[in-house]
Amino acid sequence: MLAGLALLALAAFMLSLAVGSVRIPLDEIVAVLLGGDASKPAWATIVLKFRLPKALTAMLAGAALSVSGLQMQTLFRNPLAGPFVLGISSGASLGVALTVLLAGVAVGLGGSTTLLAGISLAGDTSLALSAIIGSGLVLLLVMSVARRVQSGMTLLILGLMFGYTTSALVSVLIYFSVVERIQAYISWTFGTFGGVTWRQLQVMAPAILLGLAGGHLLMKPLNALLLGETYAQSLGLNVRRVRLGIIGSSAILAGVVTAFCGPIGFLGIAVPHLCRSLLHTSDHRLLLPAVSFMGATLALGADIVAGLPGSQLTLPLNAVTALLGAPVVIWVILRQRNLRQAFAG
Amino acid sequence: MRNGTVLRTRDLSIGYRRPRRAPAVIASDLSFSLRPGELVCLLGPNGAGKSTLMRTLARLQPPLSGQIWLDDRPLDSLRPGQLARRLSIVLTDRVDVGAMSGYGLVSLGRHPYTGWTGTLEEQDQQIIQWALQAVRAKDLADRLTIEMSDGERQKVLIARALAQQPRVMLLDEPTAFLDLPRRVEVMDLLRQLASENGQAILLSTHDLDLALRNADRLWLLSADGELFDGAPEDLILNGAFERVFSAEGVTFDRERGSFHTRQEASGRLRLEGDGVAAFWTQRSLERIGYAVAREGENGDFASYASNLHPAHSVNGAVTVCMQDGSPIYMLDIEGRKQSFATLNALTTYLRRGGARGEADAKADKDLYARR
User: Fold this and answer.
1) pLDDT digits (tens, 9 = 90+) for A57-97
2) How far is CA B79 from CA A85, A219, B40, in A?
């Protein structure tokens, strides 16, 4: 089953290299990937310079968001949890907005070119860092409240409120910002895998691989947490440390993706449900790799659809993930008799 | 080790620490011990702190003061993994593990023994099978937990706790959501586990009858934090039950080992007859508030007959006799005899004021006659 999912992800990967505004035959792609020459020099450029980083980004982002979503659903014992719902992405948005917009304000008011230069120099890293900090702070806030309230519903409302608060703060920032900066921010919120360059991938890929590795290291504690925190503790789990580990890896995953690709919704919620239903299990030893592959596949698929193959147009990525993801969530919920069982899959 | 203690406490104080206020002490000066192979039932009124005591013993919350030893080692000196190999718990909370088989759920109990991936070795698998066998739930191994009944799930959860191979098992109201046959089954199971495997089992329950019948010892925790420790029968005889459960309107019946609401007796009835039918006749008469004296008891009334109001007393008799294999109930009040085929008919008649009604009607008639 896992091998099947891995093959599916590989197929989606090759397909995403092949299709786009120009169709490139598969054997040519393989030749280019193996370091050979394509029959048209432009094809090598298209594959290596545009499609390969985009496909890699999509895979990484899809896996990252899905693992993050699975971790949140298990940690909070809530089927509707996910990086987006709990406000982690909102936190990342605020972090990015502060970096992009506030820098713009500083530049606009003070005319300080050194600050602008400083930011563009540190560019990739500072954007990712601000997103990680933003998402991490929101998660810690959610967790500290989560320890006081027991009801998962309260937490969801809380995440919603964080979302409202951050978007309000972003509105304020936008109001005082300059047009180019606002445009940069808005297009960031549409979400895209295409904006990530090879240089940025050098930051993004290690961070996400680290987060994924961290997430997979937590497979045993996550299984114990299925019983609830009290049982997990009685099984010898250091719940506080595990919770921090889960939050940490989840924040890195969701934060980094949000920083480089924008706040991409739905994948994080939908993929874990899809995998539970497909595999009929809640064992994280199986689910973690499964959601990674499935997330990568669906992200690639969404990207292919967003690219509208054969045309010069592209759709905003978030529109596509929501259009694909929302029916999945609806299907999962309707298929089950109630939410508790929906969680069970 | 069989005669030693596996868990003991000295001067233990339990409760909750509160910020900027004195801690809320629930019970203090608790000194007790658990021996291997022993089933102990913890009883007490709601809010007495049964769960707090269990949580403290499981190190889910710190004691306010005092010491707890597990396996002759201070509880707080054990690392989480060491503790999990010595002590396991079964909680009242419903667990929702999603799509997981009974086997999968029990295998979570191997957590303290497996590596970072949680991979089950040959030995782990044998122990899981043994645990399922021990709770007679082998057939549940492949069933999904979401498809199990409450009783089945409880058995699997007990097997999970067993798979931890603990020295001590703590169970918080393990029979709470079960129907009566399932309660008896689970309690019986726990008693056998204790005596066969040498585990010390402490469980809290509200099920007085089952606790009295199965426990090697009872711990009664009173609302003011006093713990009475002893064999069930000792605690009945020395009045501990009355002390712990003394509440407005409820009394403990030492003879039957049960509680009933204190109510003014509507009258006295002498009961003649024996066997099962007589026993249940007595129960039904007591239920509707009569003090019953059995033949051969020198006219001693049941303990709550002391509340008998003299004005209401009606001295009558009920005789149970068998006719063609089924009981017939004869009521005799002041010479007026009446027979009933069912206890329902008898009690309905009595409840309608039958006995007293007769007497009152007679008094009225006398009054008329004098006029």
Assistant:
1) 999 999 999 999 999 899 888 787 887 666 777 887 888 88
2) 36, 21, 26
- Decide if B96 and A285 are in contact by the 8 Å CB cutoff: no
Are B84 and A234 in contact (CB < 8 Å)?
Answer: yes
| Beta strands B168-172 and B87-90, pairing class | parallel
- Kindly list the residues of chain A whose beta carbon comes within 8 Å of any beta carbon in chain B: 77, 217, 219-220, 223-224, 226-228, 230-231, 233-238, 276, 280-283, 285, 340-341, 343-345
d(CA B296, CA B315): 17
* ipTM exceeds 0.90, yes or no: no
pTM: 0.80
Map chain A to HEC letters: CHHHHHHHHHHHHHHHHHCCCCCCCHHHHHHHHCCCCCCCHHHHHHHHHHHHHHHHHHHHHHHHHHHHHHHHHHHCCCCCCCCCCCCHHHHHHHHHHHHHHHHHHHHHHHCCHHHHHHHHHHHHHHHHHHHHHHHHHHHHHHHHHHCCCCCHHHHHHHHHHHHHHHHHHHHHHHHCCCHHHHHHHHHHHHCCCCCCCHHHHHHHHHHHHHHHHHHHHCHHHHHHHCCCHHHHHHCCCCHHHHHHHHHHHHHHHHHHHHHHHCCCCCHHHHHHHHHHHHHCCCCHHHHHHHHHHHHHHHHHHHHHHHCCCCCCCCCCHHHHHHHHHHHHHHHHHHHCCCHHHHHHC
Q: A279: nearest CA in chain B?
A: B99
Question: Is B111–A228 a contact, with Cβ atoms under 8 angstroms apart?
Answer: no
Contact with chain A for residue B60, Cβ under 8 A:
yes
Q: Nearest CA to CA, how far is A219 from chain B (Å)? A: 7
Residue B161 binned pLDDT confidence (cut-offs 50, 70, 90): very high
Residue type, A109: L
Q: Which of B61, B83, B108, B119 to mutate to probe the A interface, most A CBs <10 Å?
A: B108
Report the residue of B90, B96, B116, B169 to disrupt the A interface, i.e. the one with the largest count of A CBs within 10 Å: B96
